[in-house]
Amino acid sequence: MACIAISASLQRACCSSHHVTNKQNPQTKPARSLGTKQVSHVVTLYVDGQRSCNVLEQNDKSSSHMAAPKDAADGDELKRGLETESSLLKFIDDRWKNGTWDLNMFVKDGNMHWDGVIVAEARRRKFLEIYPASATNEEPVLFRSSIIPWWAWFMRSYLPEAELINGRAAMVGFFMAYIVDAFTGLDVIGQTGNLICKAGVFVTITCVILFRKKEDFQNLKNLTDKTTLYDKQWQSSSYQQQNASKASAKDT
Amino acid sequence: MSSIALKSFTGLRQSTPEPSHFNVPLPLARHQRFKVSASKSSPKLTNRNLRVAVIGGGPAGGCAAEMLAKNGIETFLIERKIDNCKPCGGAIPLCMVGEFDLPLDIIDRKVTKMKMISPSNVAVDIGQTLKPHEYIGMVRREVLDAYLRERAEKNGAMVINGLFLKMDLPKNQEQPYVLHFTEYDGKKGGLGEKKTLEVDAVIGADGANSKVAKSINAGDYDYAIAFQERVRIPDEKMVYYENLAEMYVGDDVSPDFYGWVFPKCDHVAVGTGTVTHKGDIKKFQLATRNRAKDKILGGKIIRVEAHPIPEHPRPRRLSDRVALVGDAAGYVTKCSGEGIYFAAKSGRMCAEAIVQGSENGTRMIDEGDMRNYLEKWDKTYWPTYKVLDVLQKVFYRSNPAREAFVEMCADEYVQKMTFDSYLYKKVVPGNPLQDLKLAVNTIGSLVRANALRNEMEKLRV
């Protein structure tokens, strides 16, 4: 625990320009350690943010909030749970205004900087995943990711195994062309005009993309298992029925 | 204004001038035309009618008993907790009101607006496409169950306040089932009286912990646990929930289901459910409360409930002359977790099969007659169950998927299709062009949400 605290303070020292308010109430030990971890987490978020100047507001009650969830069965507990409303961390960013990103603030050199919006929104979602916020009617979230144009997403998509896939597709293509030529006498140029060969290329590329690693086979198998589980659960009920009916038919 | 909107619910039911319509006979002509002759070989009963016991007095049991009693079958309905308030969301689709001829005064609230709230707090209003007369009914189970039981009793079923213990299976086709139960009489106080009852067939409608299922060795099913708190909130906050229900999705609320705030008669029900992380249900409940916090601030919990919800049907839903219906059989949909309508419907369908097979109680029945019910049920509702299962698997899988789900629900076409299929329980063929557009948009949403997820992972460092 101590080392976490130290690392957290170190990181805080590194980025002293960022403003972090952290008033904690050292009530219960586990809660405190949780609190400290949170802080270190959030600080790392700032380190890779280039120009964000988020402000964290953490209230005294945060530790009691963390401890409260254990058992809340009666009315008093609810009240306590509800009273801690002010204790939650709130996402604050100067570009986040009235439930949406202020796109004017993402303009760089006269161009819209969509990458910045994507990163900012990812950061907001991550924050909400760690500290789920309550949905209010006063401040509805109006931002929709659909306003970001499709090419901005494409620019950011990145395949770590791109080199491997390219190489694999080229190898398969080359040898298939060789084999087809050897067996049918259809040369490479002829193959490019052939419908079957075109379809073959398409299938190859799809397969290469789908099965990048060995694990992909297992994943696919798991997926089919998952999708057919429910059918099996239903079928088992009718199957047993059929068996039972056969048995009863024999009896009579 | 708010005082008009929020009538006090002093009695069990709101009073209404509308006459109740108990004695409208349901059109049975269609079924009689399709009469199945499976049991023509079975012996005709002499001196008496067919005796059927319905175990459990929920929607399934009530509807089954009513249908049986109406068609001349000697019906016994055994229910222990006559005035029990069951932990249940209590939403019924519009078509149930018409199909089961429910009086409008048992509906506490008519929900016309739904709000879906994503993990990043994007809130989407669903229900703009609803026509003025369309709504989702919110009932209290104690009211609905009591009404259905009363109606069964009026039609001639004998309602027994008793606890079903076990039953002896017959050795051959002619012998009866012997049910053992403890009868509780209001006057005698705590201690019940042990009794037995001989019947020719049994309908097990006794819920998730079914004893009937156990006694026919029906096997188990996976179940989800649902946790719900009924919270009485201040009147000014209640105005917001007057005809609005909220659904929260997110890993914090539930890893494989949703958290909800449903309006009830004079309070709201806040709850959540899960299959995979049952031990953490309290944590999820707290998270749900947290997400809805501003709107239920100052509320007081008046009741805490938890209940198992079946995930799929039991391996065996009937054996000989015993059939399971409702929760006992496991008829709860995935994704929406809806069970009342399907319970009532399966009870009625099973009863219809018995009525047909016994020719209004004059013949003995056999397993073939009971299986007609299963076949019809699977044929009618299997697609519904499958579609909802796929939806749950695709969209409740992870936070990005949930974001995409909420985005998708903002689409009017989706809302129209969803509500049509929910309210009327019919799969309406959609417009192919719109379907294609929807597919493209959904994939787009999923891709975007997952790209953001990748960004989030990079932030972790």
UniProtKB/TrEMBL annotation, chain A:
Membrane topology: Multi-pass membrane protein
Region span, Disordered: 58-77
A Gene Ontology term for the protein's cellular component: membrane
Cell compartment(s), UniProt: Membrane
Record protein name field: Light-harvesting complex-like protein 3 isotype 1, chloroplastic
Lineage: Eukaryota, Viridiplantae, Streptophyta, Embryophyta, Tracheophyta
Keywords, ordered alphabetically: Membrane, Transmembrane, Transmembrane helix
UniProt cross-references to PANTHER family, sorted A to Z: UPF0041 BRAIN PROTEIN 44-RELATED (PTHR14154)
Organism expressing this protein natively: Dipteronia dyeriana
Automatic annotation (TrEMBL), chain B:
Any one Gene Ontology BP term: chlorophyll biosynthetic process
EC code: 1.3.1.83
Gene Ontology cellular component annotations, sorted alphabetically: chloroplast thylakoid membrane
Residue span, FAD-binding domain: 51-81
Role noted for this protein: Catalyzes the reduction of geranylgeranyl diphosphate to phytyl diphosphate, providing phytol for both tocopherol and chlorophyll synthesis.
Protein name according to UniProt: Geranylgeranyl diphosphate reductase, chloroplastic
Polar residues: bias regions: 1-18
Family annotation (Pfam families): FAD_binding_3
Record has Transmembrane as a keyword: no
Family to which the UniProt record says this protein belongs: Belongs to the geranylgeranyl reductase family. ChlP subfamily.
Record's keyword terms, sorted: Chlorophyll biosynthesis, NADP, Oxidoreductase, Photosynthesis
This protein's pathway: Cofactor biosynthesis; tocopherol biosynthesis; Porphyrin-containing compound metabolism; chlorophyll biosynthesis
One function term, GO molecular function aspect: geranylgeranyl reductase activity
Catalytic activity: phytyl diphosphate + 3 NADP(+) = geranylgeranyl diphosphate + 3 NADPH + 3 H(+)
Transmembrane segments: none
Region feature Disordered, mapped onto this chain: 1-24
Family annotation (SUPFAM superfamilies): FAD/NAD(P)-binding domain
Species in which this protein is naturally found: Dipteronia dyeriana
